[in-house]
């Protein structure tokens, strides 16, 4: 819309409709499940937990895909496994069954994804692991680890650093087990670079740069940066230090948990898909309890909010992939 339409006296009341939260997604699922014959054991609440950031159209798409998958298998009712396959289809794209991957590449992918999974398992502030897979898919490339983002508004420094470490887990695992790195971590590097620059230039989380935010929603109208060349060099240096420090922390963790990484990677090479329950059976329960939200009032989905002052950058909702 033209900004002139939003001047005082014209459209004074503006209503922002965010993507649904956990409670909202559960209600939307119930609406779209009405015309579908579903299994009596289907857990709608669990479906809502596994689809963070999904809008109503995404949920409708998942329900339709799940029904189609069940129909292809000649099932009498749509069950949880069909919905999980449908969520994979919506998030990662079509499964590339005819993609030929050499055993050497497959091993690298397995260790890469195991690195992500182990970091998420043993870092306190990382998102809870939902599933890790090395099945090639359309937009998710050769594999990905899927997590369940927490429903929260604010993120502190420790939480963001743990997110960076978890995203670097794949590259660190390649470095430890193969002594070299591949091109598979390009998407991971893009994510952590955005997060690190946001910490330094937007959220004031760097002691050297200080409590300053260079974020400007109208910055596309300007041709110059809001800081000097000297400050720009300082920002670049601080971002590099932040990422390097997180990478060393990640390597130290994976070196300490080397046995678990290897165990998970070998199991991935056999099964290709591991769920949270499979990981628990292999290496034990996650040492950190997952905090539950107080059931007081539904909260907006901050992880996908477009409001820059209270939300995390968009890249944190993307699953680390190779």
What do these coordinates show?
- This protein is mostly helical and 322 residues long.
- The chain folds into two domains: 76 residues, Helicase, Ruva Protein, domain 3; 215 residues, Methane Monooxygenase Hydroxylase, Chain G, domain 1 (Up-down Bundle).
- Helices cover 48% and strands 4% of the residues.
- The protein contains ten helices and three strands, in the order αααααββααααβα.
- The protein has a three-stranded antiparallel sheet.
- Helix 3 crosses helix 4 and helix 5 packs antiparallel against helix 6.
- The protein is globular, with a radius of gyration of 21 Å.
Order of neighbouring strands in the sheet with most strands? 2-1-3
What is the CATH C-level name of the largest domain?
Mainly Alpha
Number of strands: 3
Give the terminus-to-terminus CA distance.
38 Å
Specify the overall morphology. globular
